[in-house]
Sequence to fold (174 residues):
Amino acid sequence: MKNFETERLIIRKISIDDLDQIYENWATDEITNEYLTFKPHKNKEETKKMIDYWLKKYEKGGYEWCIELKENHNVIGIISGDISYKYKCIEIGYSISSKYFNNGYMSEALKVIINYLLYECNFNVVEAIIPSNNIASIKTALKCGMKEEAVLKRRYKNKVTGEVNDLLVYSIFK
Ligand SMILES: CC(C)(COP(=O)(O)OP(=O)(O)OC[C@H]1O[C@@H](n2cnc3c(N)ncnc32)[C@H](O)[C@@H]1OP(=O)(O)O)[C@@H](O)C(=O)NCCC(=O)NCCS
Fold:
């Protein structure tokens, strides 16, 4: 798994030294957490377990990056990969601290990661599975060249509001 630099960001492997920043900036952020699968962390031990899981993922060739701001070295977000080897497909998940929303950071990071996954790691397709009411995520996917491929009707229940929505599959092929 490669590390990257863009104009404003360092996109790199996560280490246990990132624990405090990942906890404070991301794992406890309730706004960011609304669309994520885990609940906001109540203590650093929970975040440490998550980082330990990611470190084990590296040993098996998995993909998990943190996003660090060059200007102040804050770790502000995470990009994850979940591989289906059979189809050379990788599902990406992405999230950023709500303090930093709408600065173009995630699309800046994802464009580089998608290019790497398709043209250096040899995946045929990169996909993101997005609730239909998560407009910021849909816009980010579109800005990175992904297109809507499928609609899974009423397959998503928002854990905060309880609202049921469709799940959209966004993808980009090599
Ligand atoms: C999705 C997410 C990663 C985007 O990160 P980001 O750094 O803010 O993304 P960018 O700034 O690159 O792009 C976001 C785009 O969405 C737009 N946007 C955000 N909220 C919006 C809204 N409510 N309505 C319309 N557009 C919206 C922004 O204007 C921007 O588009 P633009 O550049 O054309 O103006 C971030 O919102 C996030 O972490 N959300 C919580 C976790 C999450 O939902 N992850 C995805 C799970 S599927």
About this structure: The chain has a mean pLDDT of 97.
